[in-house]
Structure formats: structure tokens, C-alpha cells
Amino acid sequence: TVSSSAFADSVSLQTPFGTLDVTGTISGTGDASITLDANTTINLSADINTEGDTITFNDNVVIDAAVSLNTTLNGNAGGATATFLGTLEATSDTNAESLTVNAGTSGDLSFAGTVDAVEARDSMALTGNNVTVSNTADVDGTLTISAGSRVDFDNTADIAGTLTIDAGTVD
């Protein structure tokens, strides 16, 4: 379990036991990128923030709250890349599960695995230079994407609510 933590240098939070529970805000200051590696599942119910450095999830992520990922703290408008290398899911309970990701004007957002294929979340708001969803995506509520350059859906996207995209190119 990772409770509220702050790091001034890059950090990789890992567990060999299969599940990493993030229950408190993780902050990266200075040059601190944040990588989470759980062997199977990262349960995310708190925010992660950096001052212009990357956020990477090396495994499947389950979101169980209203969660924000922000790489633009303290005037770092350019931000940095946020990457999901596994699947991204919500839980099946009654929590208001949403995801807000701000990768700034230069950072990219990348979702390599399926997004909400098993349990769709209530809403997602994504901001970055390029936003790429490589697999299927399913959102029950609102999906808002603001991309300085490009949005790529490499597979199907099923949005039950409102879809808003502001980007130079949508593919």
C-alpha cells in the first residue's frame, strides 16, 4: 500500500506480490518521474502529480475513485507523458469513478491496453499534445479530450454519454 508520499527524484514503486494499492496522493517534485509496477494490478484511488515529469503504469490499473493525474504542477505547462501499458478499468461498486489526466501542452497520453472493457467508468477528461488509445475503449459517461495535435483511436470506442474532442487531427 502506498499512502501519501512525495519524492524529489525519480521513483519506481514496485511490488513482487501482484497488487499495488495507491491510497494517498503521490507527488513528484523537481525531476521526479513516477513509475508504478505491480506485477499484475495497480489499484488507484488517489491522485498522482509531477512538476513536468512522466507518470508510467507498467501494469493493469483499476480506478476506484475520482482520480487525477497531473504532470503540469508549479508552472510546468508543457507537462510530460502519461503512459498506461496495461488495461485500464473501473470497479463495479457504486463509487463515482472518473479519471482526469493533464499531460500539458507537450506531454502525450498513451493507453496500450483496453480501456474499461470489463467495467466502464463514469467519465474521463484527457489533456495532452497527442492522445493515443491503442485498443478498445468504453466510457459510460462523458469523454472529453483536448489534444494540441492529434487523437488516435486505433480500435473501437463506445461512449454512452457525451464525447467532446478538441484536436488538430482525429483518426
Description:
With 171 residues, the chain is mainly β. The chain contains no helices and 17 strands. It has strands at 5-7, 11-22, 26-28, 34-44, 48-50, 55-57, 60-63, 66-70, 82-84, 88-90, 98-102, 109-111, 121-133, 137-153, 157-159, 163-166, 169-170. The chain has a 17-stranded parallel beta sheet that branches.
Provide a count of the helices: 0
What share of the residues does DSSP label as strand, in percent?
Answer: over 45%
Silhouette: globular
Major sheet size, sense and barrel closure: 17 strands, parallel
Question: How many strands in all?
Answer: 17
| Unreliable spans | none
Order of helices and strands: EEEEEEEEEEEEEEEEE
Q: Portion of residues in helices?
A: under 10%
The average pLDDT value, as a whole number, equals 93
Roughly how many Å is the radius of gyration? Answer: 15 Å
Counting helices, strands and paired strands, the structural category is: mainly beta
What is the distance, rounded to the nearest whole angstrom, between the alpha carbons of the first and last residues? 39 Å
